[in-house]
Amino acid sequence: MAKIDEVDLKIIRELQEDARKSLKEIAEKVGVAEGTVYNRINKLKSLGIIEKFIPVLNYPMLGYDITAIIGISAEGGQIVEIEKEIAKEKNVTAVYDVTGDFDILVVAKFESRKKLDEFVKRLLNMKSVKKTYTMLVLNVVKESHAIEL
Predict the structure, then answer these.
(1) Which residues form the HTH asnC-type domain (predicted)?
(2) What is the pLDDT of residues 64-91, one digit of tens each?
(3) How far apart (Å, rounded) are the C-alpha atoms in residues 107 and 141?
């Protein structure tokens, strides 16, 4: 595990709240110099702890009203290749290699049932995919890429 301290964690918390905060704002909240915040953020990036800064989007407002969670059963030797192929799909927000009833879990967002149907059929046509199980999200209670540190 990378060597980080409480100052790094405080900076990360501030960035999780709003990654567009200025270095000055973060420095004031954390209680360190602006240069320290700059250097710490660069350190966190070089360590791979911070991978990128992205906006949190309201997908329904962009027309993506359907979120599907799809379990996939596949032949063991092909799972990694299948996961890589699925990860290239534009609607896919997450691909997980999992234990349990399925080998792969996929989270994806769609503009319509027709687009979802086409996606599932593409999955089923992939070599080594044995079956899929699709669940539709009815209500989002919590959706976040951040955990409290």
Answers:
(1) 4-65
(2) 999 999 999 998 889 999 999 999 999 9
(3) 15
Q: What is the rounded distance in angstroms from the CA atom of residue 104 to the CA atom of residue 50?
A: 26
Query: Across the strands, what pairs with 63?
Result: none
Q: Supply angle C-alpha 68, 71, 72, rounded to 5.
A: 130
What are the tens digits of pLDDT across the range 12-52?
A: 999 999 999 999 999 999 999 999 999 999 999 999 999 99
Lowest mean pLDDT among 61-65, 98-102, 143-147: 143-147
Report if residue 143 sits inside a domain: no
Which residue range is the domain that position 28 belongs to? 6-46
DSSP lists the bridge partners of residue 133 as 71
Starting at the earlier edge strand, list the strands of the sheet with 129-136.
92-97, 104-110, 66-74, 129-136
> In this structure, how many other beta carbons lie within 10 angstroms of the beta carbon of residue 132?
19
* Residue pair 8/15 in contact by the 8 Å Cβ criterion: no
